[in-house]
Design a protein that fits this description.
With about 950 residues, the protein is of the alpha+beta class. It is built from 23 helices and 33 strands. The strands form 7 sheets. Strands 8-10-6-17-14-15-16 form a 7-stranded mixed sheet, sandwiched between helices. Strands 21, 22, 23, 31, 32 and 33 form a 6-stranded mixed sheet that branches. Strands 2-1-5-3-4 form a 5-stranded mixed sheet. A hairpin with a 2-residue loop joins β3 and β4. The longest helix has 28 residues. The chain starts with a strand and ends in a 6-residue tail after the last helix.
Length: about 950
Amino acid sequence: MPLKFQINNQNYNITCPPGTSLLTLLRQQGWMGTHKVCETGDCGSCTVWVNETPVHSCIFPAHRINNTQITTIEGLAKDGELCPMQQAFIDEQGFQCGFCTPGMIMSAEKLDFSTEQELRAAMDGNLCRCTGYQAIVESIKKGKNLNNSPNLVGQASCLSTSQIGQSIPKQDGYEIVTGKPIYTPDWAPEGTLHLKVLRSPHPHARIRKIDTTKAKELPGVHAIFTHEDVSRIPYTTAGHAEPVPDPHDHYLLDNKVRFIGDRIAAVVAETPEIAQTACQLITVDYEILPHVIDPVLAMGEKVKEMGFKDDRQDACPTGLGIGELTKPPIPIIHDEPESYQIHDAQNNISGEVLIEKGDLAKGFAEADLILENTYDLPAVQHTHLEPHISTSWLEEDGTLVVRSSTQVPFHCQRLLAQIFNLPKEKVRVYKAHIGGGFGNKQEILSEDLCVLATLKTGRPVQWAFTRNEEFTATNSRHAMKVHLKIGVKKDGSLTAVEMNAIANTGAYGNHGTQVIFLTGTMPLGLYRCPNQKFHGRSVYTNTMPAGAFRGYGATQGFFAMECLLDEIAEKLQLDPLEFRRQNLINTEDSLLLGVERHFKIVGSCGLDEALTKVSEVLKYQPGTPPKVNGHLRQGVGFAVAMQGSGLAKIHTAKVKIALKENGRYELRTGAVDVGTGAETTLRQIAAEVLNTTFDQIDIIASDTKETPFDAGSYASATTYISGQAVILAAQNLQELLLNKVSEIWQIVPEKLELNGILIKSKNTSINQEIDLETLAKLSDRPLVAESEYAAERSTLTFAVLGVEVEVDTETGKIKILRCVQAIDIGKAINPRICEGQVIGGIVMGLGYALTEELHFDEQGKIINPNLRSYRLPLAKDVPPIEVYFIEKSDPYGPFGAKGVGEVVINCVAPAIVNAVANATGIRLKQLPITPERLWQAIQGLHDE
C-alpha cells in the first residue's frame, strides 16, 4: 500500500515492506537524527512526533503513518533559529555523547510537569548513560521557562580572560541538538554490503563441520566466511599500546567456540536482513565439550593457593559430571597451541598479579583486631547507547579505510595491519562522533571482520551490532570474588592488609591481567600499612568476555576495602571518617604499586580538604544514631578512592599545531572525544598557551591519516597526557612564530608579545606589530610545530563521597536522599565539563550498587539481554548530587589538572553499603543491593 505523509513539512509518497518500523523508514529517507538503540521502545532515543504526539519510532509501525505529519529533531529549528528547548540544552549542557539527546528533546517538548519530581517521573521513557540526568533536568526546566534557572556556563571571549577554569560549552552542541552529528551508523559509502555473524548456541564446543550451501544460495548473499577461510593468527581484542601485555587468545574465526555468542561464521549480503536470514540457513556439526562458568571452579586445585574453598564436590558446574563421587576434571578453555602470553592455560588462569611488602604474619600478630570478609561483585554491561559499529572500504590507491566507533583508532590500525599483513600506512582508521564507550570501545570487536569482508569482496562493508549482541557478545565489567583481611590496632593504625581476588575474565583474556592489577594496587596503595599482600588472578570461563570498564578493576577492589574499613571502625568505635584520615597516604608516602612501568605518584593531595568538605556539607556529626521513623530508617555512609591519570611510560600522545593562512590556528591530535568534551578542553589548553581564545583554534582529531599518534581515550589520560602534548606543541609554535617575526623585521626585539591576533615588539625604540594572517602569508614555509609526550609518572586523583539513605525495612527498598562528592582534581580546566563527568560517573555507580547485574543461566547464557530487564538508573532514581572540586595544582598535570573520568565511580557502592549498615545494622557483601536481597538479610533469611 502506498503511503502519503509529511516529514518536517516535506511531502512523501512511498511504499515500504510489511513490518517496517517508522524508525527504519525515517533513516532510509535520510533523517539520521532519529537514533537506533534498543528497537524495543525502552530508551526513547528514537522519539519523534506523529501529529504532534511523541512516539518511540522503533516500535511504531510505518504503515500507520499514512496521511500524518511527522516531526523529527531536524524539524524543530525554524530558519536556523533554535527552539527554546534546543537552546536550553546548549545553555545547560544537557548532553555528553549526544546519542540520546534528539529523542530527549523531542520528549521534553511535550512534557507537562509542575515540580522537578514530576519532571523526573515523566522522563521514564528516555534513558541517558552519560550525563546522570542532572544537566538534562536543568535543561528541560529552562526550556519550559527561559527565566527559571541561571545559565551556568559562559563562553570566554575576552583576550584578557584566562581560558583555563572557564566553563566553555562543548563545541558540538549546535549539531547535537539539531540532529546533525554523523555518528558511525549514519553514513556508508555507496554500494555498501552488510555483515552479520552466526553465533554459538553452546558454551563450549568444537566445530566438526560447517555447511553454508543453503545460505550461499540465498539471493543477495555475497560471501560467507568460516575458520577455513582465514589465517590462524592469535591476537587480543584489547586496545593496548605495544608491547601488548594481554593474552593473544583470539582469532578472526576459530574451529572452537568458548561461550554462548562466540563467532562462528560471517555473512556478507546486500542488506542486514538478508545477512541475518542467511546465518539461520547455516548448519553446524558440533562436538559438545564440558564447560565451566564459575572462575573458582575453573582453576581446579589451583584455587587453594588463594585461600578460596574448592567447591567442586559440592557444586559442580553443568557439564562436569554432577553426582560423580570423584571430583570431575576441569575443561581447558584455551588448549590451542597457537595462543600465547596466557599465564597458566592448563588451569584456566589468564593472568596473575602478586605484590607484597613487609611481613604479613608479623603484621597480623601485632593486630588487636582482625576482620576478614569475602565480597561478590557482579558482571555489568556498559550500555552505551550507540552500538559497536564499523564501516570499511578500499580507496582507489589501495588504502584500507575503517570508520569506526572506537576509543583507540591507532591501536586498531596497528592490529588490523598485523592481522591482514598490510603496511600500517595503508590502513586508515578514524572515528566519527561516538555515542558513548566507557571502556567497551577500547576493544577491537567489529573492525576485524569488516576488514576481512572488504578485502575479500572489494566492496564497502558495514557491521552494526544489535542491542542483544551488545549485551551478550561484547564485554562486561569483570565479575569478581574478593577476599579481604585486615589487621588493626586499637588506636586505628593498620598493621596488615591481605587481599585475594579472582576475576571472571570470560572466554578471552582481553584486559584481565591489567584489570586485576588495579583491583589490588589502588585500594592497598591508598592506605598506609607496613605489611601488605595482594594476589589476583583473571580466570577463563565459558561466559562472555569481560574487558575494560570505567574504574578498570579499582571499582571492585575499593568496594571490598571501603566496606571492611567501615566495619572495623564500627568494631573499634572509631569515627569512620577520622579512621580513614588517620591512615590515608599523603605526598610524602611511597605506594605499593608493583610494576615500575605503572608507577603512580602523589603529585598533589587534597584528601584532607575533601574529607572535611564532605563532612561539612552533610553536617555530619560522629556518633549520631540513625533516624528511625517506624519502618523507615535513615543513615549516612562514606567511602574514599583514588585512580591514576594515564599509564606512565606507556601512554603516548603527539600533537601538531599550525598557523593557517587565515590567521587561525589548527590543532591536530589523535586524542578521542567520547562525549567527555576532550576536544573543547584541549582547545582551551592550546588557547591559554597561545594567549588567544578557544574559538580561534580549529581541531582535527582521531584519524590515523590526518593526525599524529595518540594512545586513545582510556585510563583517564586525555587531559593529563594529551593535554601536556598540546602545551608542548603550542609552546614550540609560539617560539617558531616569534622567531619568524624577528627574521621578517630583521631585528632581535627586547621582547615579543603574542596575544593571539597580533605580535607586538616591546622595544623601547621600536614599536612594531604584525597580525597572524599577514605573518602566515609572509612565511616561506608552513608554520607548524609538533610535540610528543609520555608521562614519566602518573599522578593520582582522589575522591571522597558521602551519601544519606533511607531504608524501608518492610520492603528492602533503598532511597538515596543525598549524595555529596569532593574531588581532588588538581585544576578543573573546564569546570562544567568536569562536573558532567563526575555526575555521570556517580550515577553509573548508583546502577552498579543498586540495580545492574547480568544474569547467567547454567550454560553461561545471559538471560536479561535488553534494556527492559537490565535495570539502568532512571532520572527519578537519581538523588540531588553535589560536586565540589578541591583544586590543589598538581605539579605533573597540564596547568595543574589531573584525570577525573574514572575515580568518581569507585566510591559509590561502598558508601551506599556503609550508609545502609549505619541505618539498619545490616552489611551486605554482594552487589547489587536489590530490595529482595536487603529484605531477606533484614529478615535473617540469608547471610549478610
